[in-house]
Amino acid sequence: MFSSIASLAILLTSSLLIPTRACAPPVNASDAFRIGQDGPADVATLGYSLNHFSLLVNDIDASMHFYNKILGMRHVFTFQATPEYSIHYLSFSQGGSNGTGYQTGEALLAQKSNTMGQLELIYRKNCNSSDHSAIPATTQYVNTFSHVGLIVPDIRSFQRRMEKFKVPILKKTGETSFDDEVRGARAFGFGSDIQAGRMTVMALTAIGFEKFAIVVDPDGNTVEVQPEQV
């Protein structure tokens, strides 16, 4: 995440104060970033891993197009539990045995339990014609979900791809503010407090936030995209 060891050193030794919400005391920059110091995990948890993340979606066709066709995740399987309720698994290819990086759906499914970072989309068709309400997204009001995180080898190429497919970009790489500060503040937990969100985004530049791009999926949830470290 840090562009260089020097930037990390500046963060850890600076005496500047990072602005925070008025309800909290100022944070000294030298105390802002702390590397974890906890010991080994309980031996009983060895082998645990984060296998997948799940999103409730309003339009399964739009969501599948975004995550599958635009972001490049592969369709592992769909399970139609009832006529109204379905789950859809997606995963990035994990290499492939033929050197092309391509894996069949069968190969992806066979590795499902040993693959990290998969996405599960859950869709329930609304059959009640009198109820047209949609599931609200993180950019619509603050909830416990913030964003999906993605790593890409070339973030400017990624950004051009998003522009090509007319995907809403909430923050472009190289910028230190959201194009839509209202939606950005909601997605990162600030609700209507745009000023607090603006100040915190500036503080996050200490850990390279200006290099990130943030885009919006069809439901209005955010995808934070970071360049891979080399």
Q: Summary?
A:
The protein has helices at residues 5-13, 29-32, 60-70, 105-110, 155-164, 181-187, 194-203, and strands at 17-18, 27-28, 52-57, 74-80, 85-91, 118-124, 147-152, 169-171, 213-216, 222-227. With 230 residues, the chain is α+β, with helices and mostly antiparallel strands. Among the domains are: 49-124, 2,3-Dihydroxybiphenyl 1,2-Dioxygenase, domain 1, CATH 3.10.180; 147-227, no CATH class.
The CA-CA distance between the termini, in Å, is 10 Å
Q: Rg from C-alpha positions?
A: 20 Å
Determine the fraction of residues in helical runs and give it as a percent range: 10-25%
| Order of strands, widest sheet | 3-6-5-4
The proportion of strand residues reads 15-25%
Report the average pLDDT across residues: 85
| Low confidence ranges | 1-21
* Strand and helix order: HEEHEHEEHEEHEHHEE
Kindly name the structural category: alpha+beta
Largest sheet, in brief, is: 4 strands, mixed
Number of strands: 10
- Annotation field: number of helices: 7
- Sum up the overall morphology in one term: globular
Short key terms for the protein model shown above:
230 residues; alpha+beta; 2,3-Dihydroxybiphenyl 1,2-Dioxygenase, domain 1; 4-stranded mixed sheet; 22% strand; globular; disordered N terminus
